[in-house]
Structures are given as C-alpha cells and as structure tokens.
Amino acid sequence: MQLHRNDWTPPERTEDEPRPPAQLRRILALFRPYVGRLAVVGLLVAASAVVSVVTPFLLRAVLDVAIPQGRTGLLTLLALGMIAAAVVNSVFGVAQTLISTTVGQRVMHDLRTAVYTHLQRMSLAFFTRTRTGEVQSRIANDIGGMQSTVTSTATSLVSNLTAVVASVAAMVALDWRLTVVSLLLLPLFVWISRRVGNERKKITAQRQKQLAAMSSAVQESLSVSGILLGRTMGRSDSLSREFTGQSDELADLEVRSSMAGRWRMSTIGVVMAAMPAVIYWAAGLAAAGGAPIVSVGTLVAFVSLQQQLFRPTVSLLSTGVQVQTSLALFQRIFEYLDLPVEIAEPEQPVRLGEVRGDVTFDGVEFHYQADQDRPTLTGIDLKIPAGGSLAVVGETGSGKSTLSYLVPRLYDATGGRVLLDGVDVRDLAFDTLAAAVGVVSQETYLFHASVADNLRFAKPDATDEDLVAAATAARIHDTIAELPDGYDTLVGERGYRFSGGEKQRLAIARTILRNPPVLILDEATSALDNRTELAVQQAIDALAAGRTTITIAHRLSTVRAADQIAVLDQGRIAELGTHDQLLALGGRYAALLHREAVPA
C-alpha cells in the first residue's frame, strides 16, 4: 500500500529563475529589521578581534624583552595584559552570543509566522492537493533545520572574517615573507569547501523531501482513521515495512550528508595543523641561507597568530559549506512563501453593517485550476432573498458543494458574480464575510480539546450559558451533560469520543453559537440516523427561521419545505422550483425522489 498520492510539487527551476546570489540577498533581507542589533554584534566582534591579535605581540615582548632582560615588572604587566585580554574576549563572546542568538530566533519566528500566515491565506484547493504532512514538514523540519545557520552563521561569519583580516594584518606586520608561505594553499582550500558545499546541498534537498514523505506517512497512518483502516484491512505489517524502508533511506541520506566531503575537509585540517612545522622549517632554512634571523619571540608570536588565523579560516570554510547546505532549506521555504494567493482580500474591502442575507448567483461559472477544460459549474443564476431557503440537489459530482463554497469564498467563481446584499463577495472584508456566512459541512472537524473549547472556537467570548443554549438547540446538551467532565471533556483526536451524529450536532451547535445571517448546510445531517436526523432537523429549522439558508442535500426528505429547489446536472441548473412544482414536472427531481423512495 502506497500512502503517497498526487500532491502539489514545486515546479522545476529554469535558467531564468533566481540563482543563489539572489537567494542570498533574500536571506539577508530577513535580518534587515534587526540591523541595529547586528551592528552591536559587529562592534563586539571587531573589538574581540583586536584584543585577540594583541596577545601575540605581548607574548613576543615577554620572550624578546622581559625575560632576557630580567624585567620582572614588565613581565608582570605583560602577563596581566594577556589575562585581561582573555577575560575581555570571554565577556565579548558571551554578549555577542546572546544578541546573535536572540536575533536568530526572531528571524526563525518571523519565518515560521510568515509561512503559517501565508498558508492560512491559501485557497481550499491548495489543501485538497497537498498532504498535511508535507505542510507540517516545511514548517517543522525545514525551518527547524535552518536554526543553527540562522542563529549562529551571521555572527560566525562576521567574527571569523574579522579575525582573519586582523590576523593577516598582524602577521604581515611581524614578517611578510612568512605570511606569504602561510597563505599559499588558501585558494585551494576555498575551492575544496565550495565543492563540498554543493555536494551537501544536493543531499540536503533529498533528505528534506524524504523527511516530508515520512511526516506524511506518520500523519496519515498513525491517525485514528489510519489505524482503523490499517487494522481492518490487515495492512499494519505492510505499513510498518513501508515506514521501515522510508526510515532506512533517510538514515542512508543522513550518513551521506554527514560524510560528504569529510575526507577533503579533514585534509584541510591536517595541512593547517602542519603549517607551524612548515613555518619553523622555512625560518630555519632562511637562517641557514644567511637571511636575516627572525627572533624567537617573533617566530613564536607569528605561529600563535597563524593558529589564530587557521581556526577562523577553517570555521569560515565550514560556514560556507553550512550556508550552501542551508540554501536547499531556504529554497523549500521560499517555494511556499512564493505561492500565489488565489483568494485575497481586496485593498479597500467593503464592510457591511447589518447583513440582511440576500444571496445572488449571477451568471456564475467555476472550474478547477487543474481541470480548466471541464467546468464544474456553468451559467448559474439564482437569487435567495433574505430569510429565504434554497435546496440544491443532484447526482454525486454535479457541483452541489462547490456551489455552496463560493458564498464564503472557499473558492472564487471563475466567471460571473456571487453577491451578498448586492455586494460581490470578492469585494467584502474577510471578517465581514466570516461573520455573515456560517458553514456546517458533512466533514465535521473537532479539535483535540474540550467540548467547551471546540464550541468557543466559533465565539471565544461565549459564556457557559451561551454554550448550553447552543447545545440544547442542537439537541446535544443532554449527551454532553452525561459525560464525566461535562463541557470540559476532551473530545479526542478528530472527535472520536463522539459518534458521527453527535459530532454533527456539535458542529451545528458551534454554528448556532456564531449566529450568522446566512447558513450553508452541506449535507449536515448525512451522518445521522432517522431519529436523530428528525431532532437535528427541528433544531436546524428553528435556527434557519428568519435566516437565508442554502442546503446541499443528499436525502431529499430534508428539503421538501425549501422555498426553492435547484436540481444540478453536470454543473448546470436542470430544474428550479418548489417541491410540488418539480414533482408535478416529472423530471429529474421526481426521478431522484422516486429512486430514494425505492432504492435499487
């Protein structure tokens, strides 16, 4: 059994798309709001670098002056200076770590928030073609994987670069010839590190895709529905084997990522560790050849500076590798941030005062983006006056639910207009539309929280009395009252503590609490038995009194009293009228009613 299905995937990069330099500029822009703090970090880093290069000069004075000349006072001052430099460096290091980590975490927070907020603005269509585990992986794994880069790379880059510049300057001041010898292999090291970085970047992209696949597999197969399906179908073992294979592939990618270029980077470390010996050897040959002799103090101070140079140089090379690796993660995050928002609030949204509830479909057409040659709705003209009721019926796949989703803008019409009180819903403010239109769908979703919390999701400031009144109207209060903790009882994952009918009634209670002037009932009683359906239908009838109601119905027995009944056939209105009119017409509605009365 394969858990994967056709999902949204990012398009392949073309030659015209931004390359790493543009991506780096975009990454640097993330730090722009914190440029003041980063400037402080830069000052601390510069000060730390200056203090660091002072120590070798103090050491030279100790070896060439204080000890040979027996000047104990000077020796004491030089020793105290070296200790003071170490203390100051430590204080600067702690301060810059605190500031840089704070900035890094704020950038991480901004990224997480930006991705989550952007996804909240995406249309329903995006989520119908994208696995939940994929979305979770982008927020958790990809952004989490960037943490070390974001929180420490900027500081490490500035710190090490400053240390390198200061060390090279000090080395030149001591002896320019030894400096040339020390830097001969540096271009080779830079080239090696870039090769390693590119290799790890490719492996990281594969690793993150595998993490996303595993996240999706866990989310789907270890949910309550997944466990029920796996066990009842006898596929638990095969699911375990599939997960084992995915985990094994991930483990292999982790090893490859860790070992990519490891030998080459280790070679750089060995060469740098051997450089002091090369310097001593070069100085010895120069002295043997009659060149001016370098003093012992100068030689020791130079080697000390060389070590100070090599540490930040290796760190810079490693940082370069880390940055290249992180580019794969940033690319995945930017792919989500760059997704076009298909349903956006207008720049100057209209806010209605008191919503009457007039709903009009004016020449409405709709097709899904992936299926533009096959329209889902065509030429829909309907008018539901305030307080009126419309029932929409038809065969499965005729476009009933899609039609209702256009009113709250879960989708946008691709042709024509949907009007609320004479205003195109695309011109309305999101908060106005959300307050005006309530939806109870056949897919009831409850959070893993208490009953009260699930109800208050519709109205956060609702009192306990409001909850009881809404639950009573939805015929669910008695069931809640019998629970061990009443309204404080946890509903369980996706509400599995409750039956399908009870979940539907909780959803209806939640909508009652919101009290919208327009109701969309998308087969809201489809999961109820006949007795419960009658009770809930009574609650819906009471709720719908004086409100505009659009009912998507599978059972025609629930819509006989509707002011209008629209029969959809392949996205078009085939018939429109009251129950009695359509029954007398003897057309599609009558056939549907007959089929329901006499099931095949």
Task: Summarize the structure in words.
Residues 1-20 are annotated as: Disordered. InterPro entries: AAA+_ATPase, ABC1_TM_dom, ABC1_TM_sf, ABC_transporter-like_ATP-bd, ABC_transporter-like_CS, P-loop_NTPase, Type_1_exporter. It comes from Kitasatospora paracochleata. Residues 359-595 form the ABC transporter domain. A hairpin with a 2-residue loop joins β9 and β10. Helix content is 61%, strand content 9%. The chain has 21 helices and ten strands. The longest helix is centred in the N-terminal third of the chain and has 49 residues, at 72-120. By secondary structure, it is α/β, with parallel strands linked by helices.
Task: Map the helices and strands.
Layout: H1 20-30, H2 35-66, H3 72-120, H4 124-128, H5 132-145, H6 147-174, H7 176-183, H8 186-221, H9 224-232, H10 236-259, H11 262-288, H12 296-337, E1 359-366, E2 377-384, E3 389-394, H13 400-405, E4 415-420, E5 423-424, H14 430-436, E6 437-440, H15 451-456, H16 464-473, H17 477-481, H18 500-514, E7 518-522, H19 530-544, E8 548-552, E9 564-569, E10 572-577, H20 579-585, H21 588-597
Parallel strand pairs: 3-8, 3-9, 6-7, 7-8
Antiparallel strand pairs: 1-2, 1-4, 4-5, 9-10
Helix pairs in contact: 2-3, 2-6, 2-12, 3-6, 5-8, 5-12, 6-7, 6-12, 8-10, 8-11, 8-12, 11-12, 16-18, 18-19, 20-21
